[in-house]
């Protein structure tokens, strides 16, 4: 029996796939639990419509992320921190600190999206990567100045 998976099923397939399964497995397990639909003409048309809609949403999301990435690349943030001898900071600048500054600038970026290659423990100019989507990221310049 051909079915369309509504959700990911371990060992069987991903949501949206059309697969062949045994009749009993489909009737007794997949269909009653709402994990699949019978692959008839009507359901296949609905699936195609949903795929197109999903692709349009993904395209819009990517365009939004790219525009935010351009604005972030042009932005230069300044952070004041307490520093001691040799321009070393007491502590370090974390992703949380950068996320809070970006929030004040009007960007909604989670601290998990900020990738700091090495800890920021010195006064000076540093570069941080902000990963907006899996394939869209921006380089952000951070100036750390002593208080």
TrEMBL record:
Residues 37-75 form a coiled coil. One of its GO terms (molecular function) is structural constituent of ribosome. Keywords: Coiled coil, Ribonucleoprotein, Ribosomal protein, RNA-binding, rRNA-binding. InterPro entries: Ribosomal_bL9, Ribosomal_bL9/RNase_H1_N, Ribosomal_bL9_bac/chp, Ribosomal_bL9_C, Ribosomal_bL9_C_sf, Ribosomal_bL9_N, Ribosomal_bL9_N_sf. Residues 63-146 form the Large ribosomal subunit protein bL9 C-terminal domain. Residues 1-46 form the Ribosomal protein L9 domain. GO terms for biological process: translation. One of its GO terms (cellular component) is ribonucleoprotein complex. The keyword Kinase does not apply. Binds to the 23S rRNA. HAMAP family: Ribosomal_bL9. Belongs to the bacterial ribosomal protein bL9 family. This is Large ribosomal subunit protein bL9. It comes from Thermodesulfovibrio yellowstonii.
